[in-house]
Amino acid sequence: MSDDFRILFVADVVGHPGRDAVKAILPGLKKELQPNLTIVNGENAAGGFGLTAKIAAELKGSGADVITTGNHVFAQKEFVPELPQLERVLRPANYPPAAPGQGSCVVEAGGRQALVMNLMGRVFMDSLDDPFRAADAILAANPGIDIVFCDMHAEATSEKTAMGWYLDGRASAVVGTHTHIPTADARVLPKGTAYVTDVGMVGPRDSCIGMDKDVVLQRFLTGVPNRFVVASGPVTFNSVLVTISGSTGRATSIQRVDREHV
C-alpha cells in the first residue's frame, strides 16, 4: 500500500463559468488522479466577487472537500452570517479575531489528519493581521499533524515566496492564489514543502483575469470606474496535484494540472 497522500488544489473559481467548469471537470479529474483531499478556492465564485452558502454547497457537490477564500470573502453581504455555520469553508486566518468564520480546519482523509490553513497577504491589499504570526499560531495549536496545506492568498509574488520559505519544512505545501495568472515555478523546496507562487484560476480564458476584457480596457483607457463583469467563452481550469509522504508530511512532488472547458 502506498504511503502517499495526494492533495488536489483547484485555483480561484470565477463566477458562473468557473462553477460550470468545476462541475464538468472536477469529478472526472478526481477519478483520474485519486486525490485523498480536494481543496477549491471559491472566493470569486459568486458573480466574480465573494461566495454564498448555496454556492459553497454547489462546489462541495462537485467534489470540493474544503473551500478556501481571500480578500473577497465578505463581498456578498448574505455570506457574513452564513459563514460561521459552514463546515470546511475558510476565510483568511489573519482577519481580526472578531471576524466571522475560521481560518483553518483539520480534515480526516485517507486514514490521516490534514491541517488546511488559509492566509492573506498585506502588500497591495487590505491591512490585516500578520499572516506569518497567524501561521505560527495555527501550527502551534495543531501539534502532531504532519500533513499541512496552506493557501496563501496575496498580490505580491515576494510575499507569497517569503511565506513558502517561512513554512519550508513545517508545511507540506504552500500554494499562492489571487492573481489568477498561473506561474511556472512549481517545485519542492529544500526542506520538503511544495510551493507555487500562483495556481491561476478557473475562469474565462479570453478575459482580463476572468473579467470582460472590454470593460477592463475602458477603465484603463479612461480612468473612469465601471462595474466589472465576468467574461464568457472557453474556461481555463488551473490546479495543482501535490504528492506528500504520509509518514513524514513532506512533499515529494507538485505538478500543474490544467484543463479547458468549452
List the helices and strands and how they pair.
Blueprint: E1 4-10, E2 12-13, H1 15-33, E3 37-41, H2 53-61, E4 66-68, H3 79-82, E5 104-109, E6 112-120, H4 131-141, E7 147-153, H5 157-166, E8 173-177, E9 187-188, E10 194-196, E11 201-204, H6 213-222, E12 235-245, E13 251-261
Parallel strand pairs: 1-3, 2-11, 3-4, 6-7, 7-8, 8-10
Antiparallel strand pairs: 1-12, 5-6, 9-10, 11-12, 12-13
**Structural Rg:** 17 Å
Which class do the helix and strand fractions yield?
alpha/beta
- Separation of termini? 38 Å
Helix content: 10-25%
Largest sheet: 7 strands, mixed
Number of strands: 13
- Unreliable runs, pLDDT <50, ≥5 residues? none
User: What coarse outline follows from CA principal-axis ratios?
Assistant: globular
What do you see in this structure?
- There is one protein chain.
- With 262 residues, the chain is α/β, with parallel strands linked by helices.
- Helix content is 24%, strand content 29%.
- It is built from six helices and 13 strands.
- The chain has helices at 15-33, 53-61, 79-82, 131-141, 157-166, 213-222, and strands at residues 4-10, 12-13, 37-41, 66-68, 104-109, 112-120, 147-153, 173-177, 187-188, 194-196, 201-204, 235-245, 251-261.
- The strands form two sheets. Strands 1, 2, 3, 4, 11, 12 and 13 form a seven-stranded mixed sheet that branches.
- It is globular, with a radius of gyration of 17 Å.
- The mean pLDDT is 96.
